[in-house]
Amino acid sequence: MKNTTIKVLIISSMILCICCQSKTKNNHFQNQTTKVHELLNKMPNEEKIAQLQGAWLRDLLNGKTLSLDSCRKKIPHGIGHFAQFSSSTDLDPDELKKVIQDLQQYLINETPNGIPAIFHEEAISGFAAKGATTLPQQIGMGCTWNPDLLRKNTAMSAKLMRQVGATQALSPMLDICRNSHWGRIEESFGEEPYFIARMGLAFVKGLQGDDLTKGVAATTKHFAGYAGGTDDEKVFYEETLLPHEATIRLGNAQSAMAGYHAFKGIPCSANKELLVDILRTKLGFNGVAISDFWSVKQVFTKYKYAKDDKDAGVKSINAGLDVELPFGMSFPYLKEALEDGTVSQETLNTSVERVLLLKERLGLLDKNSVLEKGKKLDFDPPENRKRAYESACQSIVMLKNNGVLPISTKLKNIAVVGPNAAAVQSLLGDYTYQSLAAYWWKYPIDPNNPKLVTLLDGLKSNLDKEIHIAYERGCDWTKSMSDEIEKVDGALGDERSKNLEYLNIKDLPTPNTAKAIDIARESDIIIAAMGENLYLVGEGRDRKDIRLPGEQENFVKQLIETGKPVVLILFGGRPQIITAIEPGCAAILQAWFPGEEGGNALADILQGKVSPSGKLTLTYPRTNEQTSIWYSKGYDSSDTPMYPFGYGLSYSSFSYDNLSLPKNVDINDERIPISFEIENTGKYDAAEIVQLYVSPPPNIKELEPIELKGFVRTNIKKGKKRKITILVSPEQLAYYTNDNWVIEPGIYDFKIGASSIDIRLSGKIELSGNKKELRQRNVLFSKNSIE
């Protein structure tokens, strides 16, 4: 009786505690709502409509300072957002901070209700601002298979953004990309929905942090299925939506960006099923839905879903879109729409309330919120460069090595050739500051702010001084951009085409092929830096032929003919077809766009100071015709890729052993434990990326033949072992049908691999019980432990 009484008291105390916590949270939310509602009730409609639009910061500048006259003329009612505020200017960090401070003071002191603006920028390769640390492009960060590193990187970016007053990032990009011809594949994490969801969640958590008043709001994009995956409802819910679902339900992403594409025939920016039924009702999103740049206008101009610009704005806001970017083209007509009744006051107020609530969560409505005054800002301090170096090292994938790497210390002469050997363009992906500022605004790239370390720089700084390095470009990337880039369609096609012509590399010495071949013949080893640059891949830069651009393939063939070992280093944002030259290369490294420390990272990998550890997050095609191809469908034995999903070599070797897993689990069990050991049997301390795949029973046709359900990156010293346990939820085996998630009993094959086709251990587990149906999955990811 005594024990029972104690239990009752404990339970009562727990319930009281929970109720108190709940009451506290509700009161806090109520206080927020009351504060926003009081503000909302005071705002005239002109000010409300201004909150739902963006503007260019550059349009309000007089040189490098804010023009108050321009503010008073162009944004008299305030403004909600400033789009790409840093990448559209050449302001250094302190100048940027001062302009934002002055602009917020204008908004607070001279507009009707003193509402500050949200400043947002790109952040997939670090904060896109002049002088800021430039990290590897997102496809490269994917190849690290390191969510923790990514989370720390985005937390670093958020810190830099907050230092100048920026509070939102238009990142991460979570499209599932399975076509290497598409220029925007470089912005993605690859082809695998589970993997993209894991990395996307880490990205959002790092950016937003535990306290949003100190973090930066993340934007999940492009919502949803911009890269494909919208035609089949099952694929859409199981794959396309998964990364967005994870960042919204588990990461509380504060913003969602509607894509340029159409969903079920209706453009995303004006698609109520997508923006309300799916985004808000099914996924529980409570943030701000924003347009992609110019996508509201395209509701009229591209899709003809609206009869004019005004109708495009009406259809978009009525469908659940809150904000038009980069500036108002259709939303300025909302005042007329209110007067003629095509938009209700309630609809307008709902969108404005969402924007104000986000501003409050970010701390912008706190009148005491001001930027700290202090010493000169440093956007690329040593600790940031260290993180950039570590990220570059982990992102590089070794695709081939016949033993020529690491480079022997006995070598005396090294030939370094190729258009990417000494070009800073080889380091920079699309949506870096350098790319955006050059592509859109024609600001020249500054190789020293931040310092951009090329491959040649890295080799000269890190190799023994007695080793002679001979350099010659040997060939250009391509003779003409127009020969490589597909014609860009859409409202901005002509402008982008002109930009590409501007970006054609100028002021570089004419490459000397004969000289390059001569120094190659005189060398002990040839390092050939080939591939793309930021002008050959990115938004609006699709390529039909993804072999090495221009005459690069022929140049590499000439290098191979010298008989000297060729180490091919591929830069770029997509897999490139190398079938014709792969057999003749002694080693191949995929460097992607490795960021500011790329040259140092490559030099250390080439020497063996660092063992390569990156693994592919997309399938590497063998021919142009082979795309789209991806692993989960199962590779056809008659049409195998050049390199499979999950593939990547190391200087060390690893043995997998002692698999332990239950023979039978109940369908209602919380987790299924899978444990095994890995031993580093090589001569180098190194990292291994272990992948867990599951294949369903033959009778369950609703699941793919093989799917990634977990992964672990672990560092193992030579001669040492690690025990790894992966806990899988039965809910990860569910498939979507008729608006439900179904888990079926049966015998599933659990596979531990070094890649999707290099399976080292496998075992069968019977999932017993009755078929289970769920309205929503509660568990999306496995859990890991390492001993």
Description:
- The protein has 787 residues and is an alpha/beta fold.
- It has 22 helices and 29 strands.
- The strands form eight sheets. It has a six-stranded mixed sheet, sandwiched between helices. Strands 19-27-26-21-22 form a five-stranded mixed sheet, with no helix packed on it.
- Helix 21 links the parallel strand 15 (525-531) and strand 16 (566-571).
- Helix 1 (2-42) crosses helix 14 (345-361), helix 6 (147-164) packs parallel to helix 7 (193-208) and helix 15 crosses helix 22 (598-607).
- The relative contact order is 0.10.
Count of runs of 4 or more consecutive helical residues: 22
Overall, the morphology is globular
Sequence stretches where pLDDT stays below 50 over 5 or more residues = 1-31, 488-494
Q: Helix proportion of residues, in percent?
A: 25-40%
Described by its quaternary structure, the protein is single chain
Main sheet record: 6 strands, mixed
Q: Give the class from helix and strand content and strand pairing.
A: alpha/beta
* Spatial order of the strands forming the largest sheet: 12-17-16-15-13-14
Q: Total number of β-strand segments?
A: 29
Mean pLDDT: 92
Task: Please state the CA-atom Rg, rounded to the nearest Å.
Answer: 27 Å
Give the CA-CA distance, first to last residue: 44 Å
Q: Beta-sheet strand percentage?
A: 15-25%
